[in-house]
Structure formats: C-alpha cells, structure tokens
Amino acid sequence: MENNQVINKIAELETKKSVHISMTKSAHATFRKRLFDFDVSMQEVLELFANLAGENDSRAIDIIKEAKHLKRSRTIKKLTSSEVNNLYDAISENDPFEK
C-alpha cells in the first residue's frame, strides 16, 4: 500500500464516528433481510440516511417526523388515567384565559 493510501486510511479512521443502535430482534432481522435483497449494508443505508437528513431531504425529514409522531404516541399511551387527570387538573389551575 502506498504512503498516500495509508495516510488516507488513517485519516478516515480518525474522523469516523461509531453509532450503536438498539432495536428489537424482529426489526433487525427484517431490516437486515431487506438490505441483503438489495446487496447493501446497514452502514451504507444509515450513512446515506444521515446525509440526506443533514441536507434536509424531504424523504428523510418525513421519516424523522414519523419517528417523532410514534414517540409521542408511545409516551401518551404510557400515561395512566390518574396522570392524565393530574395533567388536566394542573392545566385548569393555570388557565391563562381565566381571570
């Protein structure tokens, strides 16, 4: 390997970030299978997604918005009825429209 190539490889390694993702076995398996069908790696797809999101690509932004919506829905579902009642009580006690 040439000196320039070695330097480029070292620079690439030193500037890369490592991302660790936790997901269900099912999500991992189906994602991996789908990517295998297209002969691409998870890294290739996730790096492309990160670049598209960074460039404000509408498809990537739509996925981010969907993830936000799903996260919000999960949070709301976790609320117990007493927590919901407490929230309503707190809101009604601090009603800015009430004089």
What's this, in brief?
The protein is built from five helices and no strands. The chain is mostly helical.
Average of per-residue pLDDT values:
87
What order do the SSEs take from the amino end to the carboxyl end, as H and E? HHHHH
The profile of the biggest β sheet is: none
> How many whole angstroms does the radius of gyration measure?
23 Å
Number of helices: 5
- What low-confidence regions span 5 or more consecutive residues with pLDDT below 50? none
* Broad structural category: mainly alpha
Overall structural domain count:
1
Q: Strand fraction band? A: under 5%
Give the % helix: over 70%
Number of strands: 0
Separation of the first and last Cα atoms:
78 Å
Silhouette: elongated
What labels describe this entry?
single chain, mainly alpha, 5 helices, 74% helix
Describe the overall structure.
With 99 residues, this protein is mainly α. The protein has one domain (30-99). It is 74% helix and 0% strand. The protein contains 5 helices and no strands. Helix 3 (42-54) crosses helix 4 (58-78). The radius of gyration is 23 Å and the shape is elongated. It starts with a helix and ends in a 6-residue tail after the last helix. The mean pLDDT is 87.
SSE arrangement:
Elements: H1 3-15, H2 25-37, H3 42-54, H4 58-78, H5 81-93
Helix pairs in contact: 3-4
